Amino acid sequence: MKSKLVITIFSLLLVSLMVMPPSMIAADSQKSTEHKIKDQYIVVLSDDSDLANEIGKAKSKGGDVIQEYEHVFKGFAVKVHNDVEIGNIKKNNPSIAYIEPDYQVEAFAKQTVQTASQTLPNGINRIDADNSSTFSGDGANSVNVDIAIIDTGINLSHPDLYVYNQVSFVKRVNSGNDDNGHGTHVAGIAAAKDNSIGVVGAAPGARLWAVKVLDRNGSGSLSDVIKGIDYVTAHYTEIEVANMSLGCQCYSLAMNTAITKSVAAGVTYVVAAGNSAIDASTFSPANHPDVIAVSAIVDTDGKCGGLGSSTGYGADDTLATFSNFGSTVDMAAPGVNIYSTYLSGTYATMSGTSMASPHVAGAAALYKSTHAATPLQVLAALQSSGSTSASDCVASNNNGFGYFTGDKDAFKEPLVSVRNY
After folding, report:
1. Domain span at residue 74?
2. Which of 40, 132, 203, 381 could crosslink 418 through cysteines, CB 3.0-4.6 Å?
3. How much of the chain, in percent, has pLDDT values that exceed 90?
């Protein structure tokens, strides 16, 4: 399904949360070990180990255990005071499969723009959600499906979102309420209600699970992200789709293992390809073979044909200039100037592969709401129903089914469309 490249850990930075000015993208892509969290590690145990006993042993040797993992693998994240302590934890302990460093991730936010009446955002229009089984925008339907948003949380009181469950894995934060804005924006693209206010999502009114792994500054750790995956896996009988609009230019065996276990349990993962305008094969989790990685296109009129206005990130119906690309990318979706829900019941416009990913997550949720399908079958359905040719665009240009230009590789990922769902 994908070609993947395993690399040594050189750097970890969040590349898919928010689009940065091109100069910032270039600068951030050069950061390296400064993103490593000092004296913080992820410890993965053998399957037959005693988790409680191993945690106790780590604490007795000076470690402060900050996360525990039970459902994707046995293990824990630990904070130590120095290299000697982590060495003592590992020394002569056959129950430890491996230890890897923990890293920091960051998010960036934009301003809010309020609205009084419901609009059909260009992105939702472009993927033909208004022609799907729920007819996004007609005010009549909602979707019986669950979507986990692994992110900065979700604005729990937003009137345009159905937040069914919430949890936080951010230290000293006991609620999944969003205090950054990014997670709420992502949630709205996937599942804003079809009512009389704000916007409407790809899978309107779906039950949202706010899984908070990034703090109010949009910063978090790889160990917290893995804990979010562990939580989703524990609820695999309830959650059909998980969206992760985050990532790193890195290789993490622990996160790869977690995703593999979660997908095997039946959860479909949709992730952002990244915003560094390079091959996504070196970016995690986009390079994982079991996720649906999404690139971003420009769409300014909700229609195919390239007749809309241009943007700072490219012309209408072209690959966004910031978007990662390559054979590891499975789908494309609108990701520039996307209007969606935000903090305090408001709305905002944002850009990034972060915004493209939830269009596909919503599409996957629509499909799962009426099909008992595995994650691999969901991907196959999304790809077979997506557009792959400019000739797909109808002559009247009245809908969004039509391809884009400017892709930078030979693999033409389908542009998501839910018109037949």
Report:
1. 38-104
2. 132
3. 77
What's 291's domain CATH number?
A: 3.40.50.200
* Angle subtended by helix axes 353-370 and 182-191, to nearest 10: 40
- Check whether residue 175 and residue 273 sit in a common domain: yes
Looking at the fold, whether 192 and 224 belong to one and the same domain comes out as yes
Which two tokens mark 248?
A: 């790193």
Predicted pLDDT at 397? 61
Instruction: Kindly report, residue by residue over 237-294, the tens digit of the pLDDT.
Output: 999 999 999 988 888 899 999 999 999 999 999 999 999 999 999 898 999 999 999 9
What is the C-alpha to C-alpha distance for residues 51 and 197, in angstroms, rounded to an integer? 48
Q: Is residue 169 part of a domain?
A: yes
The one catalytic residue in 35, 158, 182, 185 is 182
Looking at residue 27, its pLDDT comes to: 25
Provide the mean pLDDT of the chain: 88
**Are 95 and 218 in a shared domain?**
no
Q: Which of 252, 323, 354, 417 is catalytic?
A: 354
Residue 204 to residue 372: CA distance in whole angstroms: 20
Which member of 28, 102, 151, 215 is catalytic?
Answer: 151
pLDDT single digits (tens) 204-217 = 999 999 999 999 98
In sequence order, the 6+-apart residues with CB closer than 8 A to the CB of 118 are 137, 139, 194, 195, 196, 197, 198, 199, 200
- Whether 151 is a known active-site residue: answer yes
81-121 pLDDT, tens digit per residue, is 999 999 999 999 999 999 999 987 765 333 444 555 689 99
How many CB atoms are located within 10 Å of the residue 46 CB? 14
**Is residue 98 in a domain?**
yes
Backbone region of residue 153 per phi and psi (left: phi > 0; alpha: psi in -120 to 50; beta: other values): left
pTM of the model: 0.90
Does 409 fall in a domain? no
Verify that 75 and 151 share a domain, yes or no. Answer: no
64 with 197, same domain? no
- Sheet arrangement for strand 207-212: 163-168, 207-212, 146-151, 241-244, 268-272, 292-297, 331-334
Contacts 24+ apart (CB under 8 A), 312-317: 313/19, 313/351, 314/406, 317/402, 317/404, 317/405
Task: Report yes or no on 401 lying in a domain.
Answer: no
| Residue reference for tokens 């009137």 | 159
CA distance 202 to 362: 5
